[in-house]
Amino acid sequence: MKFFLLASLIGFCWAQYDPQTQYGRTAIVHLFEWRWVDIAKECERYLAPKGFGGVQVSPPNENIVVNNPSRPWWERYQPISYKICTRSGNEDEFKDMVTRCNNVGVRIYVDAVINHMCGAGGGAGTSSTCGSYYNANNRDFPSVPYSGWDFNDGKCDGEIYNYNDANQVRNCRLTGLLDLALEKDYVRTTVANYMNRLIDIGVAGFRLDAAKHMWPGDIKAVLDKLHNLNTRWFSQGSRPFIFQEVIDLGGEAIKSSEYFGNGRVTEFKYGAKLGTVIRKWNGEKMAYLKNWGEGWGFVPSDRALVFVDNHDNQRGHGAGGASILTFWDARMYKMAVGFMLAHPYGFTRVMSSYRWARNFQDGKDVNDWIGPPNNNGVTKEVTINPDTTCGNDWVCEHRWRQIRNMVAFRNVVSGQPFSNWWDNGSNQVAFGRGNRGFIVFNNDDWALSATLQTGLPAGTYCDVISGDKINDYCTGAKVNVGSDGKAYFSISNSAEDPFIAIHAESKL
Ligand code: QV4
Ligand code: CA
């Protein structure tokens, strides 16, 4: 009885902070703009066998159709109704995806856009992904239904201009988006009903879009109405995983700590700082990463959702600026993602993108709006090439060997302490995770050559960055760990990927 009480207490405390991934799966991937049919296949053919814990999907609810510019990705952040009906697919396809992914142990997290509906300038008509009628002029969304009473126009008659005014940030319109009155029980219930439909289908949690633009207490009121997770796949009493999009780089009225009670928060300092370090801007060097995490002023590890880039800042939207690393800077990007996945701080999300025709004018990409690969607006299939990469302009960073193998590394070292840090005072660093894994980086302009204490048992290990361990053979480099736990590492500064990672399961 005592044990039961204690266990349920721990379960309760962990609750909305727990990603609800299957045991031993420690990272999720954002399959930005993918179709549900492709995600279902990806769960079965790739994510489950490679140890991914789950997928963040693009908003599944009906959105406005924007034709000027032509079908931008950001139209999906302008809801018209809560029908599951978008370019990614319909409700049947969504259900099939959730079922098939859960059946192979891969969770689905929904991007919930509940702060607002479409833009105030969205006009009237049926230009929406399911053809639902709406009228942005008089705030009429009959398919929900919402009417003028359900919006914050009374409290605020304009846009957010001043991020130092918390009332404005939460009650006014974010780039013109019609702001929902979440203090009203009708709005809270309507939003919760939408989320509960998704929970009942089997999703494991939510990214709360624009959380900073909602009052923490209003979010809590919505969360308190949510069902427990579907017991077909989750144990009785499991709560949905919640991570809130709160951009807090410091210096604004709203602090991400205000949201800790509701769930985790996105730590935007993480990618901005890591990008600065790997790029060696502002005098930063990798040696300074020794106290990475809370030591850098980040939120507590068990409240953090971390990532190198997201769908906004990989194209200049949102926060982070020019320091953010993306697939366009592949060599540095792989190092950054590798560092993130090796380091114990936070719950990690890997980005998976599509390619678009960038066009920089005065330092700004004027094509930052371009939507997913498509034929006349219809999202293209994610095809798989013979070499396991993706076709049709899907980048599939999560399939890059270096990234995929570091997801496996993170699973293997899960629960192990950060250990055996070494640095050369510059940009050559190394660290271990107890006796389960070790990683070495050379981001200096000269070779690395050092014998380091790894903490690993003696043996020959395959480097999982330059290759794979296949049966009893390394397709890439090998590392010999002696009986004293020490190993010699040599990394050229011109190596294709100037880092090496070994772990318990890459041992021959
Ligand atoms: C335009 C004018 C406005 C005018 C309005 C009138 O610019 O001045 O008032 O019309 O209707 C798009 C356009 C924007 C347009 C707006 C409304 O870019 O020009 O306003 O639609 O029609 C994404 C994009 C936005 C896009 C939005 C909705 O990034 O550009 O706006 O989708 O389509 C802050 C927030 C943070 C946010 C981040 C981008 O704190 O919460 O900015 N991040 C999340 C999502 C992001 C999304 C939203 C929030 C909104 O990650 O992808 O914005 O849901 O930091
Ligand atoms: Ca708001």
Task: Tell me what you see in this structure.
The protein starts with a helix and ends in a 5-residue tail after the last strand. The strands form 10 sheets. An 8-stranded parallel barrel has the order 1-2-6-11-12-13-14-15, surrounded by 6 helices. It has 9 helices and 29 strands. α8 runs parallel beside α9. The longest helix has 17 residues, at 185-201. It is 22% helix and 22% strand. It has 2 domains: 14-266 and 354-394, Alpha-Beta Barrel (TIM Barrel); 418-506, Immunoglobulin-like (Sandwich). With 508 residues, it is of the alpha/beta class. The chain binds ligand QV4 and calcium ion. Residues 74-75, 77-78, 113, 119-121, 159, 174-177, 209-210, 212, 245, 247, 312, 317-319 line the site of ligand QV4. Ligand QV4 binds next to loops. This is Alpha-amylase. Keywords: Calcium, Carbohydrate metabolism, Chloride, Disulfide bond, Glycosidase, Hydrolase, Metal-binding, Pyrrolidone carboxylic acid, Signal. Belongs to the glycosyl hydrolase 13 family. Its cofactor is chloride; Ca(2+). It is an enzyme of class 3 (hydrolase).
